[in-house]
Structure formats: structure tokens, C-alpha cells
Amino acid sequence: MQPVLRRAVTCVSAVAATLLLSLSLSAAPAQAATHNPVLFVHGLSSSASSWDEWITDFKADGYSSSELFAWSYDWKQSNVTTAQQLATEVKSVLAQTGASKVDLVVHSMGAMNSRYYLKNLGGTAYVDDFVSVAGVNHGTSVASWCTWLYTSCTEMYTGSSFLTSLNSGDETPGSVTYATYWSNCDEALNPDSTALLSGATNVGVGCISHTDMNNDYGVYTQVRNFIA
Questions:
Q1: What Cα–Cα distance (Å) separates residue 148 from each residue in 139, 151, 153, 154, 155?
Q2: Most Cβ neighbours (<10 Å): which of 22, 64, 136, 140?
Q3: What is the phi/psi pair of residue 129, to 5°?
Q4: Alpha-carbon distance 78 to 100, whole Å?
Q5: What pLDDT is attached to residue 6?
Q6: Which CATH superfamily is domain 38-227 in?
Q7: How do residues 5-51 score in pLDDT, each as one tens digit?
Q8: Cβ(48)–Cβ(71) under 8 Å?
Q9: Residue 118 and residue 174 in contact, taking contact as beta carbons nearer than 8 Å
Q10: How many Cβ atoms from other residues are within 10 Å of residue 54's Cβ?
Q11: How far is CA 112 from CA 58, 81, 145, in A?
């Protein structure tokens, strides 16, 4: 074969290979974006179903069912016990998903047991973002109605030994990114400022009731953007 002809054949072959590679890449399906799995923790007198609306919203915004975990626990027990169970749940979620960290999104008393897990049970190694929605972070006088009934209520009351210990030192430990969302007319939190955490991004969302905070779409969009 003549040198000129050989070069022409080589050039055509290279172009063909490039075109085939380009076609194969364009035909490959786009890979879906992945997220940290989100673990939702409910509060007093509630259950995993309290997150149904937000789970629907997260799915509409590109999260898959396998990335969203709403967890139920016995809210009457000590928050210490719940925190120990949460530690097991986090490890289960990580094992199921193959992720290295979760995002914790919590409501009301869920902030107490989740923060205990972060501070005292090594949770900061397994959590990327922590979001407290109407969290009872510094206690509420409204819990007086049930302190004689449930250990969890006693711990939730303003000035309890549980909260005094939980809030001693650094309120936002580790490399976790913290945010709180609070309402200025939350009937379950007295005072409203109990929801704020030193070292967190503290966001006032206006006048939204306590039970509506974790199914309000406006609050959801802020939470979604925070953990994105």
C-alpha cells in the first residue's frame, strides 16, 4: 500500500473510531444524581407518618425512596434510650445505602435525642447535616402537662438535668453543619427561642404552628436547599 493511501486509511479509521465513541457516550443513560440518605426523626406523641408530606416533596425534587428513611420510636421512653436506638438506625441506613454519612432532619423532641446521639454517642462521624425543625433544644414549659407521665417529658421540661447536660459546652459539636427552623408563634415551645442553637444557622420562618412546621412547604424548601 502506498504511504499516502496508508495515511488516508489511518485517518478515516481514526475519525470512525471517534464517531463511534461519541455515539456510544451519547447513547449511555444519564446517571441520576445521588444524595446523602435523609433520616427523619419525629417528636413527642408522633410517628414516622408525620413526615409523609415532606417525603413526597423530596421525591418530587429528585430523591429516590431508597434515600429517604422515616423512623418511628417509643416517644415515651428516655431520650437517652432513643439516642442509642438512633445510633443503630443510622448504621442500618448507611449499610443499606452504602453512604458514608446521613442527613438528620428532626422535629420537636427529636432534636433532643438526635443531639444526644451527636454529642455523646459518636454521631458526628456519621452525620453530614443536622436540621432541627421546631426543636426543643433548650426546653419548654409546656411540657409540664406530662412530666408526671413520661420520662421524655421530664427531660423536655425547661431546666431539666438532661437538657442542662446536653447544652453544656459546644451546642453544635463536630464537623456537622447545623440549622434550626423556628416559628415566632409556636404554641408548643415556650419560649420560642428555645429552638435556637449556638453555632447553627438559625432561621425564623414566621408564624407557623408547631404541628405544621414539618409539613409546611415553605419550610421544606429551605430545608431541602440547606442539605443539598
A1: 16, 8, 8, 7, 11
A2: 136
A3: -120, 140
A4: 28
A5: 44
A6: Alpha/Beta hydrolase fold, catalytic domain (3.40.50.1820)
A7: 344 334 434 434 443 334 343 443 333 458 999 999 999 999 999 99
A8: yes
A9: yes
A10: 24
A11: 24, 11, 18
Task: Tell me the β-bridge partners of 158.
Answer: none
CA distance 178 to 226: 9
Residue 82 near residue 150 (C-beta atoms within 8 A) = no
Quick one: how far is CA 176 from the chain centroid?
11
DSSP state of 153: H
pTM for the model stands at 0.85
The one-letter code for the residue type at 223 is V
What's the rounded Cα separation, in Å, for the pair 140 and 75? 16
DSSP-assigned letters across all residues of 40-106: EE--TT--GGGGHHHHHHHHHTT--GGGEEEE---TTS-HHHHHHHHHHHHHHHHHHH--S-EEEEE
Distance of CA 149 to the CA centre of its chain: 30
pLDDT of residue 93: 98
Assigned C-alpha cell, 98? 452504602
**What is the rounded CA–CA span in Å between residue 164 and residue 157?**
11
Strands 177-182 vs 38-41: parallel, antiparallel or unpaired: unpaired
**Residues 132-144 as b or e (16 or more Cβ within 10 Å = b):** bbbbbbbbbebbe
Tens of pLDDT, residue by residue over 72-115, are: 999 999 999 999 999 999 999 999 999 999 999 999 999 999 99
- Residue spans of the domains in the chain: they are 38-227
